[in-house]
Design a protein that fits this description.
Layout (H helix, E strand, L loop, with lengths): L1 H8 L10 H27 L7 H25 L17 E2 L1 H9 L1 H12 L7 H20 L9 E2 H25 L11 H31 L15 H19 L15
Antiparallel strand pairs: 1-2
Helix pairs in contact: 2-3, 2-9, 4-6, 4-7, 5-6, 5-7, 8-9
Length: 274
């Protein structure tokens, strides 16, 4: 989406008094609206040859609408509160648990449910584009679910926040997998040679690289702080590492939505609290 890409590349132009949370919230909402509209445009264009069962299709569209509403509500909420985990962990959110375990439990449903929809899918499971989409999604979420948590040295994680994340990640995996491997029309093998696909994969890899490198930067900052609390500064010509980390994740997921022509769930990080 040209507008989203331009906004991402010009984040450094946002006044320095704007907080990372405000920058991310603005970008997340714009990405959410863009992905939502793109989904329904893609549905009109690519589901014509297959009419899915009304009952599941109605549920699918309803969950999509709920996700869109959550994007808007999250924007509003982030201007009044900060997600209580990691650097911003604080009391008042109920019992807590080990951060590594919490992160694995709350992220794992996304790749597991997606993998299940792939296994039971009746479309695109044997096509090259479908296999590439599955690889991209699972590489990203296996890293977030089972590899990234092992590097955490965070404060105890609120059980309430982890539970909310589980409630997000279950339909996240369902929306992505079911759209591509059941509701969408079958991709042709030649689709992998299209400009949209090639450029989209390249930009996805760029976003994933930004996300992973930013994770490493934040780990180094935590180690350098020696438990006294780390600070992320904004240099003259670049945005904060935390913002880049979040935007890398957002960027990768949003590009997946674009190149798959309809996976709104792929843009999950367009509203998620980073």
């Amino acid at each position: 989406q040209p507008g989203d890409i331009a906004l991402f590349l010009r984040l450094q132009a946002i006044p320095r008094h704007r907080s990372t949370r405000e920058i991310l919230a603005t970008f997340q909402t714009m990405a959410s609206v863009s992905a939502f509209l793109h989904t329904y445009l893609a549905v009109d264009l690519h589901v014509a040859e297959y009419l899915p069962p009304a009952s599941e299709w109605d549920v699918f569209r309803f969950v999509n609408l709920v996700f869109f509403a959550l994007g808007v509500s999250t924007l509003v909420a982030l201007f009044f509160t900060t997600a209580p985990y990691g650097k911003y962990s604080r009391s008042g959110w109920g019992p807590t648990m080990n951060a590594k375990l919490a992160w694995m439990l709350m992220e794992a449903p996304s790749p597991l449910v997606f993998a299940l929809t792939f296994l039971i899918g009746d479309k695109n499971t044997n096509t090259l584009p479908g296999l590439v989409f599955a690889t991209m999604y699972l590489v990203h979420y296996i890293n977030r679910s089972f590899i990234f948590p092992l590097t955490l040295k965070s404060k105890p994680y609120p059980v309430s926040v982890a539970a909310l994340a589980v409630l997000f990640n279950i339909p996240n995996g369902y929306l992505n997998g079911r759209m591509i491997y059941h509701f969408m029309s079958t991709y042709s093998e030649d689709y992998v040679y299209s400009f949209q696909f090639v450029a989209g994969v390249a930009v996805f890899l760029f976003g994933m690289r930004v996300n992973w490198s930013s994770d490493a930067i934040l780990r180094d900052l935590k180690e350098a702080s020696k438990g006294e609390g780390y600070k992320v500064r904004c240099a003259a010509n670049r945005c904060e590492a935390l913002c880049f980390g979040g935007c890398g994740c957002i960027f990768s997921d949003l590009i997946l939505a674009v190149i798959s022509l309809g996976g709104f769930g792929f843009a999950d990080s367009s509203w998620r609290v980073v």
